[in-house]
Model the fold of this input.
Amino acid sequence: GKVRAPTHIISTISDDRGEEPCYAGVPMSSIIEQGYGVGDVISLLWFKRSLPRYCTKFIEICIMLCADHGPCVSGAHNTIVTARAGKDLVSSLVSGLLTIGPRFGGAIDDAARYFKDACDRNLTPYEFVEGMKKKGIRVPGIGHRIKSRDNRDKRVELLQKFARSNFPAVKYMEYAVQVETYTLSKANNLVLNVDGAIGSLFLDLLAGSGMFTKQEIDEIVQIGYLNGLFVLARSIGLIGHTFDQKRLKQPLYRHPWEDVLYTK
Ligand code: ACO
Ligand code: LMR
Done:
């Protein structure tokens, strides 16, 4: 019989050996001819399946809404400083990306994990939030440096509006909103932030689309796919900030002494 040399790599998402590359079995020509968008390409390469249009549209909305949030946020700041130090595009981009994590943009997976666990266990918002407090963990997806009860995050409202009119159910989002109502009773800035909105709504997307088994949803949440949405989205803005600084021929950045508290 045939003797097959053992392979060192297993890959299941794309194949470039034929006449044209395929993403999850779908040839490039179909992707173009059938008018697929970037949301469809993400569903093929990340989720290995074609998702319904409202799901791919939701993915695209997440990408568009998270593409940038001005020059002052951690990621853009790092990118700007790096670009001004004369570094190249990739260095400036990754310098910004490296700030994405539990406090900034990278709380989506944890928000999905904690909201799912709490909602599936029927915890009241009080039980959930106070339980987290006892463990000394800030609720991922809650809180913002500049957004508050009276200055809500428009991105969150837009995502919720889209989901309310397009998703079959928004159970996890409603749970996150109840959690927000409780946290807002504690402090004005403890709003549901964009990470929390995407995390909870993606749970609704996964559960409501009928395209994923329970086991697959658990795996997606456990591996942590969802921070990828912010990483991908914000790369667009960080690349823009790099070009902006280069275009403006900005000099090396040095932080002013006056803005540092020198102390022992
Ligand atoms: N859950 C519970 N309590 C909170 C939370 C939270 N998520 N956030 C703030 N608090 C409370 C705490 O009592 C905190 O005191 P502590 O330092 O003793 O824990 C108090 O509010 C004051 O917090 P600050 O540090 O002033 O809040 P800050 O404005 O610096 O933090 C931040 C904003 C980092 C977003 C914070 O709310 C947080 O860690 N949230 C969870 C992570 C998260 O969702 N990040 C994504 C933000 S959206 C984005 O980056 C695109
Ligand atoms: C962002 O999207 O970068 C923000 O929500 C973070 C911020 O502090 O504005």
Notes: The chain is about 55% helix and 0% strand.
